[in-house]
Amino acid sequence: MLSSLALSAVPLLLALQAATVAAIPTISAVGSKFFYENGTQYYLKGIAYQLTPDDPLVDTAQCKRDIVRMAELGTNAIRVYHVDAKADHEGCMTALADAGIYLFVDLDTFNTQIEQTDPHWNQTQFDRFKEVLDEFQKYHNTAGVLVGNEVLTTAEGAPAAPYVLAAARDIKAYRDHKGYREIPVGYSAADIADLRPMLQNYLACSSNSSERLDFYSLNAYEWCGDSSYTVSGYNQLQKNATDYPIPIFFSETGCNTPAPRTFADQSAIFGSEMSNTWSGAIIYEWLEETNDYGLVSYGPSVQNAPATNTLIEDGFTRQGTPTPVSPDFDNLKSQWATLHPTGVVLSDYRKFASAISGIECPASTSGGWSVDPSSPLPTLGQTYKQNGSSTTGTAGNAGRTPTGTGSASGTAIATGKHNTGNAVMVAGSTTERLLTGSILLCTLLGAVAFWL
Predict the structure, then answer these.
(1) Chain-centre distance of CA 124, in angstroms?
(2) Nearest-CA neighbor of 52 among 79, 77, 81?
(3) Can you cite a GO biological process for this protein (predicted)?
């Protein structure tokens, strides 16, 4: 009797363990492309999803309602700008994984984002970034993390670029030292002509892989109305990205002037002009607000709502049944339904990727790009001074007052480490963790059998 009870528990325990192993396949960055574990190339068909300023991934019931509509669109990725690292995200992340939807999440908060007006990188910022990574690295459908969103918005903000890279360097070092999966670390840039393509190249040009991004993304709203590949300037974006050594994609797009949005740019991004270079696009945004970028709403605007009503912020309901905004929702659905780039197979691409040469670092110029690529990156605790010098300290980041939950270029919406010399090595490959779990399960099984 005891033996049969013990043996009957084995299949259940093995099934639970197998469920962990057989979870949604992870995404990795190889060369200039993203790949699923089976070697198929991954293209983002994403939505910017920030229902509430603090964290949209804590309401499982709402996530499930929204995911039904996302699946209808053909969505396979969402981008979230701000999360509470201490909250429970299991329900939403599991529901997203079940629908084949991956997460790109920003690591900063309203109080820890890197600012071009006061560039610095300190322990407080690093600690907050680490907390978000600690929380989301455990989910297989976390496809990437971002160390900043539109930090640089003018040519004068160029001195902040090394601080963005310093954050990426330290997060990557922390990720690796903790034994986490190699979740790609990237940045989301504002589409500023004065910074293009210098910033893009600077963040990927280092010969030291630990001091460059794993991916680069762009918030671009150039294709508006009845435009084209050349009229919109997408041909120039493509030219700038040709032979780029890391994955690049649109982290925000979807110009809404003139209305309605037809999303015609998607046919270029996923078509023959750009799909060999770009890895897809994230549409701004899920929720309809004052800026008229939403794909769904939860009812008409509600002005002067009582402060006690937590379901309403800035006059817009943020919970309930998602109703498509017409005709934008259907227009995007129609576009994505016809666009299925196959890309390349990883086994074939590896031969090419190993031969990819680095991109040339942009030279510092008087009155232009002001970053010397040969200068060392800032260290943890370093603050930039206007005279070009830097100091070591722990100055705080004042942050900005958010006027919305996301960040669309041109809409004035605010959204948005680890010292490698002090790294603590933590053993923890996936195999080692599974082995440890197996031993613990077997021990537990034996104890239960003995007790029975």
Answers:
(1) 21
(2) 81
(3) fungal-type cell wall (1->3)-beta-D-glucan biosynthetic process
Average pLDDT, the chain: 84
Q: What is the pLDDT of residues 13-37, one digit of tens each?
A: 444 433 443 489 999 999 999 999 9
| Containing structural domain, residue 213 | 27-354
Q: Burial code of 118-154, b = ≥16 C-beta within 10 A, e = fewer?
A: bbbbbeebbebbbbbbebbbebbbbbbbbbbbbbbbe
Pair 57, 293: CB distance under 8 Å: no
pLDDT tens by residue, 160-196: 999 999 999 999 999 999 999 999 999 999 999 999 9
β-sheet with 120-121: strand ranges across: 120-121, 382-384, 390-392
Residue 269 DSSP one-character state: H
Residue 376 within any structural domain of the chain: no
Residue 265 belongs to a domain: yes
Is 150 assigned a catalytic role?
A: yes
The answer to whether 273 is a known catalytic residue is: no
Q: What is the CATH number of the domain that holds 308?
A: 3.20.20.80
Q: pTM of the prediction?
A: 0.82
Marked catalytic residue, from 135, 252, 288, 289: 252
Structural domain total, the chain: 1
Residue 408 within any structural domain of the chain? no
| Six token digits for residue 330 | 């259907």
Q: Whose structure tokens read 């999360």?
A: 83
